[in-house]
Structure formats: C-alpha cells, structure tokens
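Side project, low priority. Logging it here so it doesn't get lost.
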Amino acid sequence: MRTKKELVEALAERTQQSKKITEEFIDALGDGLRESLAQGNEVMLPGMGKFTVK
C-alpha cells in the first residue's frame, strides 16, 4: 500500500507534472468519487475497478 505522498510523487514523476498539481488532481478525483457514491451511484474506472457503497 502506498501513502498519498508516495502516490503523488510517483504520478508527478510519471506525468511530468508538479507535485502540487498532481495532489490537487488526486484530491479532486477523491472528492468526485465520494460525491457520486454518496448519491448512490456506482463509479467504474476502466483498468482500476468498480466502486460501490454497500
């Protein structure tokens, strides 16, 4: 398991973006997932998985 900091560093390097921009993207993605799941929706991210609330 990676920490958020490790994930930010790895993705920033891979995408050649700043760590600040990468962290903002990860935060926005998490917010979007939580909002959608809170509304009872499923979220499917190809290659990653399907997120649902049980």
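Brief comment: The chain has one domain: 4-51.
Revisit when time allows.
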